[in-house]
Structure formats: structure tokens, C-alpha cells
Design brief:
Low-confidence stretches: none
Number of strands: 11
Strand order of the largest sheet: 2-5-8-1-9
Mean pLDDT: 89
Number of helices: 13
Helix content: 40-55%
Radius of gyration: 20 Å
Shape: globular
Order of helices and strands: HHEHEHEEEHEEEHEHHHEHHEHH
Structural class: alpha/beta
Amino acid sequence: MERLIASMEQTIIGQPMNVRLLITALLAGGHVLLEGAPGLGKTKLVRTLAENIEGEFKRIQFTPDMMPSDISGNVVWNARTSEFDTVRGPVFAHLVLADEINRAGPKTQAALLEAMEERQVTIHGHTYPLPDPFLVVATQNPVEYEGTYPLPEAQIDRFMFKLTLDYPSEEAETAILRGHVPLSVQSPDKPVPVSTIEEIRSKRAEAAGVIAEEAVLGYIARIVRRTRELSSVRLGASPRAGIAVLAASKAWAVLEGRTYVTPDDVKLVAVPALRHRLILSPQAELEGMSGDEAVREALASVPVPR
């Protein structure tokens, strides 16, 4: 895991926390909603992870005219064999980048989200399992919403994390410019992976076996319940949110080289795991409050177990 993080940080400059949280979601078996302005490296972040674990990467550019079969696949008539051939869609990959997911219609969005939840796809009555591991990273542009189809709350709740990419610091941006190599002169050889799919599966099994003491479980439950009691929140986090926090805390513990979860792990993953699951009250929205602030308010009001 240390080699994987170090290798990614050589390519993805200025985003150390997002790199670690993306790997955490992979180990925890979750999916990620990635938000950031154009040109901040959302595609490169996911592609770099795929290259470093020797995984198959597919990018889907969502558009209003996309159909569910453009994601899952279809059957086509083969005139030579006089039979129907199944053509698998781009969702059959270890890492799938759903670029601008809110630009496709609700039916197409639902097709991808169903694959995320079920880990399988049905094409003309036949069910096909998706690769393992399977990570979907869906992106949204936080500025331009004209002509988009916002994801319903029930579908947003399917994402383990919501990560935001901000503009890099001046030092990081200078380093990006210093290391830039034009596409025309880049080496055609793929980078040497530092990990394998088998190692990722092994680490996922390790994360599932991480110990969470009763005090930590109670701490997570109190945080989730506290989000439902805040005056600034109209709809708080669900039990599924608590499960996501627990799974992410275990995966983060693996990244830290531990076999047990600490309250600090919980506090660290709580904001990206809960920020998108809360619906703020109209008054809080008028005051410019964000989901991050609501989660931090909940964290601050719940005693940390010793």
C-alpha cells in the first residue's frame, strides 16, 4: 500500500488525501462521487490507480442521448454464425470512470447504479458478473448544471465517498508544469504497476477482518444519529451511511498498517462518507452552510471514546 500511494503521488501532485481516500474506497468495496472543475485531473486520478494495480480501466462519457445498453452491453446478430453474439459494455472493467454522470438521463443513470449495487449485469436475460474488484468513480462538474439530470438522493446514497478536487497550491501547480510531457513525445509503454489485482483482493479481505471495538461501533452510531438531530439538517444520514463509515474506517486502518479501528480513523473518513448524504434545511442553505460543516458539527458534539 505504501508503494501504491507513493507511486500515485508522483503522478497526481497536490492531492494526497484524495489519493488515499480513493484507495480506501477500493479496499472497502465502495464507489466514489468525484466533483471538481474541468482540468483538475479527475480522469488521470482514476487512470493512474488502474495502471498501478494492473487493472482494466474504462471511461464512459455520459451524454443526454445515451441508452442503458451503451453501458451494460447488447446482443448483435452474427450473420456468419446465424446466432446472436453478446457484446459486453464498458462497465466490464475493474475501474470505471463515469464522466459527467449527471448529463445522462435517469434511465441510463439507473443502469449504472444498478450495476454498482448488484455487481452484475443482465443482458437479454443472461446475467454476467462484473470484475472483482469493481470500482466506479462518477464525476460531476460543480459549476455548470444547465442541461443536466441531478442524481436523486437515493442514488447519491449509493456512493461511499464524495470527494472534491480543489485547485492545487502554487508550489504543486509549478511542479505539475515542470513535470508535464506533451502527449506527442510520451513513451508508448505503460507504467510498471506496483501492485496487482490479486494483492488488492488480499488487502480487501484483510480490511474486512479489521477489528472494530464496541466503543468504536457506538461512536459511529452516535455520529450518524446526531446528523438527524441537527437543526441545520432536514434529512440526516441513514444506517447505510454508518455501514459506509465503518467499512471505510477499516480500510483506512489497513492503509495505516493496523488491524484495528481507532476513533481518529472514524473522524477522518466521516466527512467524505457523510457530506453527500445530508439534506440541509432551507435556512441552512440560505446561510451558505455546506454538508461538510454539518458533519463537522455532528463530530464536534459527540464525545470521543477513550
